[in-house]
Structures are given as structure tokens and as C-alpha cells.
Specification:
By secondary structure, the protein is an alpha+beta fold. The chain has one domain: Alpha-Beta Plaits, CATH 3.30.70.20. It is about 25% helix and about 15% strand. It has two helices and four strands. Strand 2 and strand 3 form a beta hairpin. The longest helix has 13 residues. Iron/sulfur cluster binds next to helix 1.
Length: about 80
């Protein structure tokens, strides 16, 4: 059973960040419309779910670039 904690700040939808996040700022750099760091720089969260194909592409890029695999999609 997985013990990862999915942050409450994530906007409801397919993409989410969980507690493996080390707040490295990579996803927020790649897709700033969709990922933000918390004000205390504790972790990133999804602030806007992607809809358009270019938005989806950026979020997929963020998933691949995340060094700790902290961004996932609902199956
Ligand atoms: S790329 Fe991954 S580890 Fe870095 S801030 Fe985003 S979710 Fe966190």
C-alpha cells in the first residue's frame, strides 16, 4: 500500500503533487501556469489543471523532469 500523501493544495483534477516533492522549482519553471510553490517553499502543487494540448504537453514535461517523481496523474 502506498503511503504517499497527496497535498490538499492541488486543484482537483488529473494531475497532482505528492509528498516526495523537494521544492526544487523545476515544474514551476517548466509550467508556471500549472505548478506553484507554497508561500513557505515547502512543496509544489497543481494550481491549474491542463486542458489544452500545449498545456498537457507542459505538464507531461514537468512529470518527466521532476527529479523525485512527485508529480503524478490519476489513472
Ligand atoms: S519538479 Fe518535482 S520536486 Fe521539483 S518542485 Fe516540482 S514536484 Fe517538487
Amino acid at each position: 500500500m502506498s503511503t504517499k500523501y497527496i497535498y490538499d493544495d492541488n486543484i482537483n483534477g488529473d494531475y497532482f503533487v505528492h509528498d516526495a516533492c523537494i521544492a526544487c522549482d523545476t515544474c514551476t519553471d517548466i509550467a508556471p501556469k500549472h505548478f506553484k510553490l507554497t508561500t513557505d517553499y515547502d512543496h509544489a502543487y497543481v494550481c491549474k489543471q491542463p486542458k489544452l494540448s500545449n498545456e498537457l504537453a507542459l505538464c507531461e514535461e514537468a512529470i518527466e523532469a521532476c527529479p523525485v517523481g512527485a508529480i503524478e496523474k490519476q489513472p
